[in-house]
Design goal:
This protein is an all-alpha fold. The chain contains 17 helices and two strands. The two termini are 34 Å apart.
């Protein structure tokens, strides 16, 4: 099949695969599997942070910094490899990420210090971030009419990961040591990624973008105030997720919630978000992706602000449900919005650039919240500020992605 491509460099013709077809849905299914594995390894850190501290003799600040470094490398890898991968076929990129996960599993087994542990989790971040950026930038390119729905289904993987993995971690820790349990999870993730690398490619038969990716293209993006605003907003809207990934158990136990309930609470957010992800994708396709996205972000900001006032289980589950609905609205829609607004050409690179501010926020915000907790002797002020930052992020992203602007 030959299809015309309208790009900033002109109109090109080339062989492409059919959109909204079986091949695209196969990539969706594989994307779900990879996200389950990656999210289960990275974003349930709050469940096994205590075991890391005990096994490696770390302070609470050191443990928090391990998570911050992991998330920062996750996002920086997405930024760097997103730009680089736009020039090359995707199959070897995904395969290399699978090898990186194997290396991370091995590094955890031989680490004997804080520095060694940071190195191991940095490998996890680099490999996971590479896989993630490929998934979220590639899937929208295989769909047209069902773009939002396809991304909604794909992103259920991250919800399933944080829903199931707390229970998997607890089951593993009851039977094997901390190092071995982490190694098992990392190797399982590597197996899924390596299997997926066999079929992950772009719709165009040459598996490349249709015009060269050069510094002029990058300069145009970073000089575009709308793109800059969207990037800054995108970094801010996820701050709450990183804080809860690393601090939710402590936030809830400080508020008087039992440790067992607190340990599984992050999974509850992921569980609620699964249905919301699918639903928001289809709703976004019909009533507007940007509007659905913005509503989800504002809901997250409200939930963050009320979290310090949660002291009973009924209040807790209502708030967690709010987070889940918000996550379900935001996760599947942001990449179709970016691809639609700024073009499918070099979509992997554009999504990668979007991750740069997010990397900075992901590294700094959990540490800032920890410092503010000590300074203010509680979570009320830090989480109230975090709620306001989240809403600000929604405004910047909405303005930056306005159609036909800039």
């Amino acid at each position: 099949m030959t299809t015309r491509f309208d790009t900033p460099s002109g109109t090109l013709e080339g062989p492409v695969d059919a959109l909204d077809a079986a091949r695209g849905w196969l990539l969706v299914v594989l994307g779900v599997g990879m996200l389950v594995a990656i999210w289960g390894a990275v974003f349930t850190f709050t469940v096994y942070a205590g075991r890391l501290a005990a096994t490696f003799g770390l302070s609470s600040l050191q443990v928090s910094s391990v998570f911050s470094v992991t998330i920062a490398t996750f996002l920086v890898a997405g930024s760097v490899f997103g730009v680089l991968a736009a020039r090359y076929p995707l199959r070897p990129v995904v395969a290399a990420a699978g090898v990186g996960l194997v290396a991370a599993a091995a590094a955890v087994q031989i680490a004997t210090s804080y520095v060694g542990l940071v190195a191991a989790f940095s490998l996890l971040g680099v490999a996971g971030g590479t896989v993630y950026i490929v998934i979220v930038s590639l899937v929208p390119q295989w769909f047209d009419a069902h773009q939002g729905g396809a991304m909604g289904v794909t992103m259920t993987g991250s919800g399933l990961g944080v829903l199931m993995m707390p229970f998997v971690w607890l089951w593993l820790f009851g039977r094997i040591g901390t190092r071995t349990a982490i190694g098992v999870v990392f190797i399982a993730a590597a197996a899924v990624v390596l299997a997926s690398s066999l079929v992950y490619r772009r719709p165009r038969d040459d598996a490349r973008d249709v015009s060269p990716l050069d510094t002029a293209w990058i300069r145009r993006r970073v000089a575009d105030p709308r793109f800059v605003a969207a990037s800054l907003g995108y970094g801010l809207i996820w701050c709450w997720y990183y804080v809860l990934s690393s601090h939710l158990v402590d936030i809830l136990t400080t508020a008087g919630i039992g440790a067992t309930v607190a340990a599984t609470s992050f999974g509850t957010i992921g569980g609620v978000s699964i249905l919301a992800r699918v639903g928001s994708g289809f709703v976004g396709d019909r009533v507007g992706r940007r509007q659905t996205f913005a509503a989800g972000v504002v809901l997250a900001g409200l939930c963050v602000a009320v979290l310090p006032m949660v002291h009973a289980r009924a209040q807790l589950y209502l708030t967690l449900a709010g987070f889940g609905v918000s996550l379900g609205a935001v996760a599947p829609l942001w990449s179709p919005i970016i691809v639609t607004r700024f073009g499918a050409e070099h979509a992997t690179a554009a999504v990668g650039l979007l991750k740069v501010p997010q990397a900075g926020a992901a590294f700094a915000v959990p540490l800032v919240v920890s410092a503010l907790y000590v300074t203010t002797n509680g979570y009320t002020d830090p989480l109230t500020a975090l709620g306001l930052v989240t809403v600000l992020g929604a405004f910047l992203f909405y303005w930056g992605t306005a159609p036909g602007s800039g």
